[in-house]
Amino acid sequence: MTQKHEFEVAMTCEGCSGAVTRILNKLEDVKFEIDLPNRLVWIESDRDVAFLTDTLKKCGKEVKYNGAK
Amino acid sequence: LCSVSLGVVGMTCGSCVQSIEQRIGSLPGVIRIKVSLEQNNATVIFDQSQHSPESLSEAIEDMGFESSLSD
Ligand SMILES: [Cu+2]
Ligand SMILES: [Cu+2]
Q: What's this chain's function (chain A) (predicted)?
């Protein structure tokens, strides 16, 4: 079942949100939204949270899982 | 040791520079990295038994920035 997950990613600028966008675009089976001012990323996917967290961490910023929304 | 200059696109500020320098600079086999925001590139000194220009470029791409083997 596809869930919508909320992550807090310590993004500080458009370079960060651009990096997160490119990282997530490489996954084929996700839909996502990024709110840079609030440092939030919503991902709709049936992948598990650990995988999504590791994927987001590739940008080099801190990542925190806020739960399913 | 080898030195290579790689194109890096997508950085907007000093914090982008820092995250790339930190993450790539901490890979085993990377001796030194200097990223330039103005020139959109990264100069990397590395141990060629552990890395190649291609693998370094891929590591930067993996972080979500666009990287190319320049010149
Ligand atoms: Cu940033
Ligand atoms: Cu930046």
A: Binds and deliver cytosolic copper to the copper ATPase proteins. May be important in cellular antioxidant defense.
Q: Would an 8 Å CB–CB cutoff place B68 in contact with chain A?
A: no
CATH topology of domain B2-69: Alpha-Beta Plaits (3.30.70)
Contact with chain B for residue A4, Cβ under 8 A: no
Domain with A13 in it: what CATH number?
A: 3.30.70.100
Alpha-carbon distance of B70 to B36, in angstroms, equals: 14
The predicted complex's ipTM stands at: 0.89
How many degrees, rounded to 5, is the angle at CA A48 between CA A64 and CA A36? 35
> Residue B2 above 80 pLDDT?
yes
Side chain identity at residue A57, one-letter code: K
Task: For residue range A28-54, list pLDDT tens digits in order.
Answer: 889 999 999 999 999 999 999 999 999
- pLDDT at position B41 is 97
